[in-house]
């Protein structure tokens, strides 16, 4: 078989954890070529100086929409929520396929987006955006031109609950995440002394991933469900564990539903023991452990991912593979 | 006012984390005198060599029931579950007041105990034992002769949920705990490399603190409630956070109920922000944050304690203070 | 014996780790009364909200030199280096005894200070300042009016090496410190993700504690000695370990020298095993382990302190006790 | 160019950290085929169950010398010191090339080995063993049949100091290591609660890597040098930093010596800033930072490696590549 053609990929916003890892993964991908890395705050600095454990000796540049898109096939945009939409629109205008890591194109309903985030600056693109969870939208992702990469919590939550969605009467999602999920910004909350030997709930009752989880559980068949979701900050850097406690409307073959959903998925593993987040660190895997509890008649689903990998950057590569016609697992397994 | 009379207190099983801390707290208490410390495995070793950060220069001895009880008023027994009952019985026969840190006298129903633990070797003492949660059983603890010190998870769970108990239709308790809760035993699970940068659920669907939580929620007014409870092991040594998600049978004045329950409690703090476990480290405090969620109509209660302090050893001192007639907060505030 | 008279103490700069802990220790001291806490950046915020594990319910105010010194006996100033001198001078003018936690009065030689720090704004006070290491300057500290509290690394280094100082031909000091030593400032270097699972040397060849160490080793008898000193940042919050490797000019009774120096010191412990920093966490202790190495003929001295306690704030209280005529160990043992 | 022929490789002792990682690296190597994994204690267990983050679904078997060597070209032996020699001898008798991860063939002098370890059970093999540090013994390693893989500390120490060896008058090596270096054994010392928020020196004056460091510095040209070496246990899992403080006999072009030694080495990087151990985690790299100190006239060399990779298992693959005639960097870059 002939080798696939190469694609050139820009990473815009490569000075954050997610963008930098995306650049590393593009750089190591056999069919992708990293065409450039941009950053507003770290212009002129080398990526491997900013992140000494990454081995990409490329200099961060200020984004020049014309120069950085010439001869480039696709872009991964790693901007903050609200700031991404305009750049995504500009890149789309110049014909690039785009995976957007922000929330700007995840919520299908503009009003919901604007309620939880800010005014939308490119609402005309919402209809054409595909939600980038391949286990749910593989067909739409093949050939898609704009992909909204899911949030890290929704990634794990939807993978954990979609097989039950049509049967859910109630669900509590208790999430535990490492500090890298909060980004590189140095704040009181990310200071080592605040985090070590500590664990704290945050965003109680108002985390922005809530409407995204509800939207995608509804898309998977849930009716009238408002999920309870609370994240907690833990003293670890990468890794995310979601503990989901579901009440079903009626009895069902729970394990059968998970087998049916994931038996052929390359990146979802059903395991017999509760997973730890280290089991999946540095991988594109989601490990799921399902327990049907005889005492309470609830279903417990524990989902472990690496928030920077399957939760963000390696999932972006998985999406790019589908968008560009490569084998889905290339460069991330 | 005259100074209270001194009491002499033995700590049996002082080579574990809980017993050692109990010895330290007795040693620093103005009205208690540490009469001896015993251990089966570390006989002859000094407590401040085994735990260099503790400052009790006393030698661990093999328990001699006669010698170690002569002129002694009370004992704290820090033995493993199942192993404690017989020693407790022997100490009671010799007239000592006893706080038992094990589970052996926590479950009022012998059959339930034997279902979750082992055969009971001193069932005749069950009726006289008082459950050592002062915020619930203060009156009974004054002058009690045998106190079953609560488990660390039940301590936080009952404090978090008792004010709602009569109204609970359903509750999910997601617990996060440090490694000291697993004790000093060196195993694969407590090895640094297994724990660091990790988080793992354990005891899924079968943790022994479940029947204790159900018993005490029923005692507080819950009817027909089987709580969902799942602990998770975190990379920290001391500290325990319980995230409780409660569905109520009917509307109620939630914040009023907590105010009413805890306004005068010296060791329970209602706080406006979600607590971190470091906020209460090395204290006998339980910090509670209550959130009534408008999206889901659930009540969230977050409870933070130090598992070795309020969760075990300083609560034992709180109980001893009540049993021996001292001011409840002496030596632990 | 009559109870000593109370003294009122101001803590200026109480929003940092060192100042906040100083305020907590003053607040808990039987003979000191915390008269006020000030901060430039956190005016109006309560200390126990900023540091939930501290229990001082006092509001941080902007420093008002007249109001905050009225009826006040002493102050602890926890300002950054360079910024402290002027405030110290103003407080001294108003008659307060001052313990300055900054480096501004530690170096006796103005030129050396200005070479390593900035221009000195109160050089007229240098002569009267006493270096606040009680184990070296106890007599001068009794009744002193201005005390320069030592740096955390010099505290441990001088305690580790002073007994050998007159005999030192060469010394290498390899220091390991937790992140709290870097202060509350949120930076790339203090971000949890930068620190966890990492260890990095810093300030190589140019750390500002070097001239302070050399000055005090010379004061203890060293001649012509320039110590090698390199700190390393470790993934822990509090704690500091100095590993000192000394070459002696001639044979001497090493252990005897340490015994002679510290046999009667309340806060220096000579121990048989290498200490860990947890052994002294939250205490004013310095633990020293001395090893005379037969293979290399060097003397190894390992010194463990808590950088925020003996390394800073509890040592400030030790100094205040001496300055105000209280028993030296009051409130910190 | 034709693809190289495959080699079949046995990993004996694959249930420890080092052996398991060696098995993973063999399994992922393009020219090596993992023929089997053995273990005495975990017979019958799958490697990917024992180490869920490793993806090698192979069952651990009790070593059967005949069956496990049939058609096998080479073995990596990951046994404890003292226990390896006999198995190595048996594998050599059956014609396998062997990389031994233990210390059994590292010390050329049998008496020195027996002084620091135990009686040697295969001394006849000592002469033929090559010390497996490719940067020093590349020529001898090509085609070698028995390779003694260096200790993790000596690996970093020799790489840090060999370019200076002929000029060294004195050297202090202060080493910082993560817990994985202590192996999988669950003990008081590896318990999470003992390690977190702590740092402790160990093996003071008597660590077994001392004679290995001295031997190899002498082989590199040092005369009469006894290095000072002290390791410290840190709260991290993988990673090792050596801070070396060297006194030279006479002035020399230090940076030139390092450039000359390592300009063409694929796995040694000279860097401008002090390295952190995370910079090299999960790689076969050694990062060196060299500082010539004008104040003390010493040379500081900081060396960072991953103790399980360049310090052990990936270096074993580097050695195997040389022994079997593959390009040295295959499978580890």
Automatic annotation (TrEMBL), chains A, B, C, D:
<dbReference type="InterPro" id="IPR000534">
    <property type="entry name" value="Semialdehyde_DH_NAD-bd"/>
</dbReference>
<dbReference type="InterPro" id="IPR023013">
    <property type="entry name" value="AGPR_AS"/>
</dbReference>
<keyword id="KW-0521">NADP</keyword>
<dbReference type="GO" id="GO:0003942">
    <property type="term" value="F:N-acetyl-gamma-glutamyl-phosphate reductase activity"/>
</dbReference>
<dbReference type="InterPro" id="IPR000706">
    <property type="entry name" value="AGPR_type-1"/>
</dbReference>
<dbReference type="Pfam" id="PF22698">
    <property type="entry name" value="Semialdhyde_dhC_1"/>
</dbReference>
<dbReference type="InterPro" id="IPR036291">
    <property type="entry name" value="NAD(P)-bd_dom_sf"/>
</dbReference>
<keyword id="KW-0560">Oxidoreductase</keyword>
<keyword id="KW-0028">Amino-acid biosynthesis</keyword>
<feature type="active site">
    <location>
        <position position="152"/>
    </location>
</feature>
<dbReference type="Pfam" id="PF01118">
    <property type="entry name" value="Semialdhyde_dh"/>
</dbReference>
<comment type="similarity">
    <text>Belongs to the NAGSA dehydrogenase family. Type 1 subfamily.</text>
</comment>
<dbReference type="InterPro" id="IPR058924">
    <property type="entry name" value="AGPR_dimerisation_dom"/>
</dbReference>
<keyword id="KW-0963">Cytoplasm</keyword>
<comment type="function">
    <text>Catalyzes the NADPH-dependent reduction of N-acetyl-5-glutamyl phosphate to yield N-acetyl-L-glutamate 5-semialdehyde.</text>
</comment>
<comment type="pathway">
    <text>Amino-acid biosynthesis; L-arginine biosynthesis; N(2)-acetyl-L-ornithine from L-glutamate: step 3/4.</text>
</comment>
<feature type="domain" description="Semialdehyde dehydrogenase NAD-binding">
    <location>
        <begin position="8"/>
        <end position="144"/>
    </location>
</feature>
<keyword id="KW-0055">Arginine biosynthesis</keyword>
<protein>
    <recommendedName>
        <fullName>N-acetyl-gamma-glutamyl-phosphate reductase</fullName>
        <ecNumber>1.2.1.38</ecNumber>
    </recommendedName>
</protein>
<dbReference type="InterPro" id="IPR050085">
    <property type="entry name" value="AGPR"/>
</dbReference>
């Amino acid at each position: 078989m002939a080798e696939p053609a190469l694609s050139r990929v820009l990473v815009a916003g490569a000075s954050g954890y997610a963008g930098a890892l995306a650049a590393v993964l593009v750089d190591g991908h056999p069919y992708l070529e990293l065409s450039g890395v941009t950053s507003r705050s770290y212009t002129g600095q080398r990526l491997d100086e900013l992140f000494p454990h990454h081995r990409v000796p490329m200099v961060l540049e200020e984004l020049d929409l014309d120069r950085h898109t010439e001869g480039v096939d696709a872009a991964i945009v790693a901007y903050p929520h609200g700031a991404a939409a305009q750049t995504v629109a500009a890149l789309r205008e110049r014909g690039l396929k785009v995976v957007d890591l922000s929330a700007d194109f995840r919520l299908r309903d503009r009003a919901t987006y604007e309620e939880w985030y800010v005014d939308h600056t490119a609402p005309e693109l919402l209809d054409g955006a595909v939600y980038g969870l391949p286990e749910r939208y593989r067909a739409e992702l093949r050939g898609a031109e704009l992909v909204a990469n899911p949030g890290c919590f929704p990634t794990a939550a939807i993978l954990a609950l979609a097989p039950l969605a049509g049967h859910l009467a109630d669900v509590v999602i208790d999430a535990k995440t490492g500090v890298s999920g909060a980004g590189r910004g140095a704040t009181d909350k990310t200071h080592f002394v605040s985090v070590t030997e500590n664990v704290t709930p945050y965003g109680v009752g108002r985390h922005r991933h809530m409407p995204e989880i509800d939207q995608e559980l509804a898309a998977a068949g849930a009716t009238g469900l408002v999920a309870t979701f609370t994240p907690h900050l833990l003293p670890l850097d990468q890794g995310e564990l979601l503990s989901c406690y579901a009440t079903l409307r009626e009895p069902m073959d729970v394990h059968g539903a998970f087998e049916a959903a994931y038996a052929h998925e390359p990146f979802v593993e059903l395991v017999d023991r509760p997973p730890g987040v280290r089991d999946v660190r540095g991988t594109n895997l989601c490990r799921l452990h399902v327990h049907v509890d005889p005492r309470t008649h609830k279903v417990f689903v524990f989902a472990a991912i690496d928030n920077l990998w399957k939760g963000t950057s390696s999932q972006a590569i998985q999406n790019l593979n589908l968008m560009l016609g490569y084998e889905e697992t290339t460069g991330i397994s």
